[in-house]
What we know:
By secondary structure, this protein is α+β, with helices and mostly antiparallel strands. The chain folds into three domains: 4-132, Acyl-CoA dehydrogenase/oxidase, N-terminal domain (Butyryl-Coa Dehydrogenase, subunit A, domain 1, Orthogonal Bundle), CATH 1.10.540.10; 133-242, Butyryl-CoA Dehydrogenase, subunit A, domain 2, CATH 2.40.110.10; 243-388, Up-down Bundle (Butyryl-CoA Dehydrogenase, subunit A, domain 3), CATH 1.20.140.10. It is 49% helix and 16% strand. The chain is built from eleven helices and twelve strands. It has helices spanning 18-35, 39-45, 50-58, 77-88, 92-112, 115-126, 242-278, 290-318, 324-349, 360-367, 377-388; strands spanning 4-5, 11-12, 132-135, 151-155, 158-169, 176-182, 192-198, 204-209, 220-231, 235-236, 280-281, 284-285. The protein has a four-stranded mixed sheet with strand order 3-6-7-10. The relative contact order is 0.12.
Amino acid sequence: MSGTVLENGVGMNFQLSENQHMIADMIRKFGKEHIYPKMMEWDESQEFPIEVFKKLGDLGLMGVLVPTEYGGSGFGYTEYVTAITELGSICGSIALSMAAHNSLCTGHILQFGNEEQKKKYLPKLATAEWIGAWGLTEAGTGSDAMRMACTAVEDGDHWVINGTKNWITHGISGNVAVVLVRTGELLDSHGITAFIVDRTTPGFRGGKKENKLGMRASETAELIFENCRVHKSQILGKVGDGFVQAMKVLDGGRISIAALSLGIAKGALTASIKYAKERQQFGQPIGNFQAIGFKLADMATEFEAAELLTFQAADMKNKHLKMTKESAIAKYFASEVAVRVSTEAVQIFGGYGYTKDFPVEKFYRDSKLCTIGEGTSEIQKMVIAREILK
Length: 390
């Protein structure tokens, strides 16, 4: 494919690069050796397999976007999307945790940290010596972030944080968290500040671990702050910049969830095609029946459309173009496609699709998170509508 031309006149090449091929092959081999053998055990027990992420760190996948000078791989968003998609086609939980670590905690420090902060934290995060968490959501303020109740009050050279954050990936196991807290008035978009908080800081701990429908090997838990004193040197950017920073971080985060959705859809579609060729009914493979063939055609079409939207957003992100609308469209469409494709996969597998002996029931359970995390489908539609009506 020769590519297309975007509205801004920037060409986009759809051929996979040598780096993307290398990453995809590496992840497929890694999955066979380190993920497939135990992923259902992790899913059943909700175990967060830290050792897997240490190994991913050795491969450079926990710092895909981090420049080599800080210990990362120095790749761009197209390679990053390829990595998440391939991991997601194996196990959504592993891909979700890898994505959250890269785009949220690490990505926030990379995008808004000063040189001292980058040198201190990025080498540890990029190699998975440390696991990162990112705290925006609260129990009563999911998408309504400007009503957050977690606050920080200035006290000399320190800020004292009190409150909780909910639905945080790596809320218990993370070694460091970037946390958005209210330092100004309620509903003031310039009244929120981002802090880097080390796990060893007194008054900072993990709380309740959520018992989830899917993505069960990706740890989701509370962050609890009780008179947690954080030095002013731990502020990312300026006091009051946190909300604006978070919205920019989420532009990239939406690409992460779109890529994760692609991976789940790819895994479900691949399994369905294989099964449709092998499963015999009425003396022939079920793929020969139009009812199944048409399902597969719809699944493949939607997957490829979602893939194009996701790589368009990634390409624009690489080129430092404004892509709020494009990332929201990619996240919205790809996440809904993941749900539809995995649902149809269960239907194609019939009774077997409802058992844990076959892979599609896990894709089915994992897919739903993609329409909720890092902004629900409804929030994405709000973002898209706002952008096109400007």
